[in-house]
Write a structure and sequence with these properties.
Layout: E1 7-14, H1 19-27, E2 36-42, H2 51-56, E3 59-69, H3 73-78, H4 80-83, E4 89-94
Antiparallel strand pairs: 1-3, 1-4, 2-3
């Protein structure tokens, strides 16, 4: 399978305050056919935590998961700071297989 045909799981971890901006940005991207989001808690990296978060040992975050073509990730990431905000953590995971049961082509 060529690089242009491979999929990746892009995970974006953001502050709840920019959730609406992230949703709007992702929905406007032609490279994103859909995504999943859910609330999570971040732990560690105390330099990023407020005093209250340091005391509790966690901070509220929203996590987005997007399965997309590998070559399109860099363009999507490039627009995040200008269109959504900063302090967005991200990582990519290789996708071995992806499809929908019952939707055979």
């Amino acid at each position: 399978m060529s690089e242009s045909q491979r999929n990746t799981l892009l995970v974006l971890n953001i502050a709840p305050q920019i959730e609406d901006e992230m949703v709007d940005y992702l929905l406007a991207q032609s490279s994103v056919s859909g995504f999943t989001s859910y609330p999570v808690r971040g732990h560690g990296e105390h330099s990023y935590l407020s005093i209250a978060e340091q005391v509790s040992g966690r901070r509220k975050r929203i996590q987005f998961e997007i399965i997309m073509a590998v070559p399109e990730v860099d363009e999507l990431l490039a627009g995040l700071a200008a269109n959504v905000g900063k302090e967005i953590a991200y990582w990519q995971l290789q996708i071995i297989n992806f499809g929908r049961v019952g939707n055979e082509i």
